[in-house]
Fold this protein.
Amino acid sequence: MTITLAIPSKGRLMEKSVAALKDAGIAVTAGESRSYRTSVEGFDGLEVLLLSASEIARELRAGAIDFGITGEDLIRESVADPDMAVSFVKRLGFGHADVVVAVPEAWVDVVSMDDLGDVAGSFRARHGRRLRIATKYWRLTQSFFSRIHGIQSYRIVESLGATEGAPAAGSADIIVDITTTGSTLKANQLKVLGDGVILKSEACLLRSAARQREAGDRALAEDLGRRFAG
Amino acid sequence: MAAGKDQIGSALDELFAKRGAEPAEPPIILPAEPYLDTAGEALRRRIFLTRGESGENLCLRPDFTVPVCMRHIAEGADLPRRYSYRGLVFRQRADGPAEFFQAGIEDLGEENRATSDARAVADALASLDACGVDLGTIDVILGDQGLFEAVLRALGLPEGWQRRLIRTFGHDGQLRAALGRLANGPEDALAGIDPQLVDLARDREEGTLTRLIRTRMEEAGLPPHSGRSPGEIAARLIEKVQVAEARLSEGALHILEEFLAVDCRLDEAGERLAEVMGTAGLDLGRAMTTFETRNLAMRAANVDLSRLSYRAAFGRPIDYYTGLVFEARMRGSEDPLAGGGRYDRLMTILGAEAPIPAVGFSLWLDRIGEVVNG
């Protein structure tokens, strides 16, 4: 009878995750440098794995792990119907970051999504192509633009890094990206639209709804959930 | 069911041939770019995408209109010309199977729009009849984006507002929201813009604005020859200030709402529209002539207008539709058995060198099969 919990494998997210577990009475010690395993004290039958934050989102969706700590942005981006596939046990109060729509500061006429809708709507007639958005969040972008703001005419340019540089590089007109302090955007002379915050994300403890569990493990999972509920 | 489908199929093949449409047989695996480009990113989650060996996006045929039009452009065939199609299409849907049969006709290059519009409606109804659908049991709803655009023009709305409202046509909720913003007092659409720039825009100092914006773009290292230009941004800022300070008078809003509420038999629509617009002393000009001429052409094509309804707010929110749109549904259902419309913008988007008038319709054969076979 064991249940698994995956936490981010490096950086501040890992340190803060370990601290959050400690607050719940669970002491996690990382093993040898390259190991993904840890030793756990304070909760019998719990195994804590170290994985990358985006892998944690995928494994939760697949039901390969019982619990995971990862960013809400990654869950909402990588899972089609997050409220069905996972349950949010607790928002952990660290790893704050916003997923935002940002346009060049030189676009002095664009301050809202309505403005952007106007620009996107006439973009093809003027430039012979759609407005291009660089992002690694295509699912969040689509549902924000298409479903919430009714903007259909744009193309997503998949970006795998340094998204904020895309407008200056000419590979996209605007971006959807994550920001914590806004300083990277500012350094690239980009501004966030007034109503352009798609998601206020933070690290969350999540429970997989897809995971099949035996009765004993189910009880363990309930226990772990309760530790954090308070 | 299979036997029923074969009957429907051969009845349609025969009808399409009689109506002078030549069969187009586009492949099932198609380049995805034209779809993403014409229908927009929202389509991405509804089509089956894959990547070819050299990295190009490919998809399973989600409709026939785009490949039929593209084939026509590639072959450069003479116009006018009618193409028919019948076969499987593939879409990801929450309810219903992901592959289903469609058939239909695309009518390209007919300059007489009233005639070809009427023919699309008449042929769609004749197709349903040929499949064995009792036309007495269906609703046929017709809308016309051209009339909506004409009403906005006649009301004298600033162009920026006209475009914003036209984009929402066919999306009731979004249209309502946009109207609400247009009617309510000064919105803070100008908040967040450098007040000095707003003043320049109010004074229509386009040259000065353009220079200021160009400087900012240079500082940010934006490429000067791709995307929005300084002049374009300056012009839109001027228009935006104008739009933000325009209000829709209560009278005008009332007329617009009364227009959007029109929902009547098609043979009574002309009179009803004349009533709404005439009381306000407005003239819809060419758009009204187009509407009336189309109705005459439908009568000439033996369509019983008293069986069709006209809904002023009925549209299909895809930005290449330009005029007539229509759907035939089982009475009381929201699912179309047939649907179509005019898409005069599509051919140039897909690469035609000159604009080509185009109108067409498609039939949902699986739904029709269910209706016919019980």
